[in-house]
Structures are given as C-alpha cells and as structure tokens.
Design brief:
This protein folds into two domains: 58 residues, Orthogonal Bundle (DNA polymerase, domain 1), CATH 1.10.150; 276 residues, Aldolase class I (TIM Barrel). Helix 1 packs across helix 2 and helix 10 packs across helix 11. The protein has a ten-stranded mixed sheet, with helices on one face. It has a two-stranded parallel sheet with strand order 1-2. The protein is elongated and about 70 Å long. It has 343 residues and is of the alpha/beta class. A hairpin with a 2-residue loop joins strand 5 and strand 6. It is built from twelve helices and 14 strands. Iron/sulfur cluster (SF4) binds next to loops. It holds the Pfam family Radical_SAM. This is Probable dual-specificity RNA methyltransferase RlmN. Its cofactor is [4Fe-4S] cluster. It is an enzyme of class 2 (transferase).
Length: 343
C-alpha cells in the first residue's frame, strides 16, 4: 500500500475487504468500525484488536480528523459554528444546532463550490475540491467531541453542491446510517441541492428515505436565472417536473428553500406565483430572510415582510415557515467565516 488509507472513508463492506487483504476475518472489520464511530482516534485504544494487527493498521491506515481553527459559540441558543482545516490546508465550515427534536449538524460537502449562486459567499473562489466521505462525516464527529453531545440529525447544506460530489455523498450517507457505527436514520438526513435535476432522479432511486431540500429562490426563469446560474442548465419547468416525479416515487415531502431578497423575489405577486408553481405538490416552503453577503448587492427583508409572504402561501394551502434565526449573535452568512480567513 502506497498512501495511507483514511478508515473514515470506508463503508463497512469496504473495510471488510481491506481487512481480508490483510489476511483478517470480517468480524475484525466490524470491531474496528465500531471503535472508530465510538470516537476512538488511535488504533492502540482498540483493546479487542490484536497488537500485531494494530501495528499493521498504524503502518497502512489512519483515522482522519479535522483541525479545529475557530469555533463561534452562541450565548443564546447553543448554536456553534466551526471552521475546520483539512489535511491539505483547505478550510470548511459546519454548524451545530439545537432543536426541540434533538441536535443537528449542517455539514459541507465540498471545499468551495462551482455553482456560482450570486448571493453565496462559498462560491466566490470557485470549487477547490470535493470532500471525501470521511471528511464530511468527521465534521459531525468533531462537533460531537467539542460539545460532548450526541448528534442525531444531519443536513448537507453547508458549502458545496452535494450532488456535484454524488459518490462521496452516497458513501457518507451509507457510513453514518450503518447500525454498527453512528446509526443515524435515513429519515434524519436531509440533502439540499441547488437543483441538479438529473441527480434528483438518481437520488430518489438510491435514497428514497432521505429528505430532499431544493434551493428555489425564484418563481420565473428570469428571476431565478439571475440569482442561480444552474437555472440555465435546468430551467424551472424541468426542475419542477422532476420534483413532482420525486414526490410521486418516494412519497416524501420536498422542502423548498426560498431566500427572500428585497425588491427581487419578495413581492405579493412572487408569493402568488410560488403558490401556482407548487400547487398540488407534496411540499413545504422554508422562507429565509437573506443573510447579507458583503458586496453581493442584495438586500435582506424584514421578519415582518417574511411573515406577510408566509401568510400568502398559507392562505393558498402551501405549508410555509420562516426559518428560525439560530445563533443570531454569531451570525455571519454561510461561507463568510471561511472566506474571511482566506483573504
Ligand atoms: S448556495 Fe450552495 S450551490 Fe449555490 S453557490 Fe452556494 S454552496 Fe454552491
């Protein structure tokens, strides 16, 4: 073996294959997998694994971790925002949040992003690279270690377009779902996409129980296209058709993320159009008053305006909520922490 293998990148069957190649039985892989997801970072602490095997593992493998560069702690609601450094010096952000139903983490799936959404700080320098499955899940492990609390819910909504890194996203989901490890239910995982329609089809096929969130942000191709270049590749009619097919196939409700931007997509007629294009679909709209990104040229709306917009949707039978402001006292738009360290 040339390069050392990060065992957090491996699904259990892959670990079994690796151990087999070392002349070991499958149950050893399960033991090691269980140790890793109990949070053990050194092979020496795996006390039911023979010493000779621990030495061999140390020679050929490692348990990848992230370096914590900065953590911002909310004094009001327990939210923690992390900036981590990867092995190659790239940085990523994650956010730990406390909800009534339990703890949740928002993880990044890429360092940077190539989708170019105009209101987003994460795309300013383009895509640096995809994150490996282990790098995605280490965000959760590090947050559990920092808070001393279990995390039962995951949203893949941090930096990056998860469907642009589909294979690693898919491996990540299978690893965190494994009952021998973190055992996080598929229904407790949400993946958010900017609307890569062909990948939504694939996702419905592969993970019918995982929740899907779509960044919509506009009700016409003109408005959405001005904010999200992806709309050229997958215009609204194609995206919405795919969404309807998704709900029919999976029976799952889609969450549409709709960032309210003053004077761009927050008028009464925007709200009415939104009802029209979503009519009859199994869905929920999450309204997000824009988190101001310096120099983006976009302005946020008041919570009052967000409430009025929500009311129009609800009066027409579209379930909608205004996103609760978590960690408002530490708030900076997603991606800004990372950006501020880079400039
Ligand atoms: S909003 Fe998401 S998909 Fe769009 S540029 Fe930012 S990270 Fe990428």
């Amino acid at each position: 073996m040339d390069e050392k293998i990060n065992l957090r990148d491996l699904q259990l069957p892959e670990m079994e294959g690796l151990l087999k190649s070392m002349g070991q039985p499958a149950f050893r892989a399960k033991q090691i997998f269980q140790w890793i997801y109990k949070g053990v970072k050194s092979f020496d602490d795996m006390n039911n694994v023979p010493k000779a095997l621990r030495e061999k593992l140390t020679e050929n493998c490692y348990i990848g971790t992230l370096s914590l560069i900065e953590v911002q702690r909310s004094k009001t609601d327990g939210t923690r925002k992390y900036l981590f450094e990867l092995e190659d010096g790239n940085t990523i952000e994650s956010v730990f949040m406390k909800y009534k139903y339990g703890n949740s983490i928002c993880v990044s799936s890429q360092a940077g992003c190539r989708m170019g959404c105009r209101f987003c700080a994460s795309t300013r320098n383009g895509l640096e690279r995809h994150l490996s499955p282990g790098e995605i899940l280490s965000q959760l492990m590090e947050a559990e270690a920092d808070t001393g609390e279990k995390i039962g819910h995951i949203v893949v909504m941090g930096t990056g377009e998860p469907f642009d890194n589909y294979d690693n996203l898919s491996a990540f989901i299978k690893i965190v779902n494994d009952k021998n490890g973190l055992n996080i239910g598929m229904r407790n995982i949400t993946v958010s996409t900017c609307g890569l329609a062909d990948m939504i089809d694939r996702f419905a096929e592969d993970f019918p129980q995982v929740n899907l969130a779509i960044s919509l942000h506009g009700t016409t191709d003109e408005i959405r296209g001005a904010m999200m270049p992806v709309n050229k590749r997958y215009p609204l009619n194609i995206l919405l058709e795919t969404c309807r097919a998704y709900t029919e196939k999976t029976g799952r409700r889609i969450t549409f993320e709709y960032t309210l931007v003053s004077g761009i997509n927050d008028s009464d007629s925007d709200a009415e159009r939104l009802c029209k294009i979503l009519r009859g679909m199994l869905c929920h709209v999450n309204l997000i008053p824009l988190n101001k990104v310096a120099e983006s040229g976009f302005d946020t709306v008041s919570r009052g305006r967000a409430g009025e917009f929500q009311k129009i949707l609800e009066q027409r039978g579209i379930p909608a909520t205004v996103r609760r402001e978590l960690g408002a006292d530490i708030d900076a738009a997603c991606g800004q922490l990372r950006l501020s360290k880079k400039l």
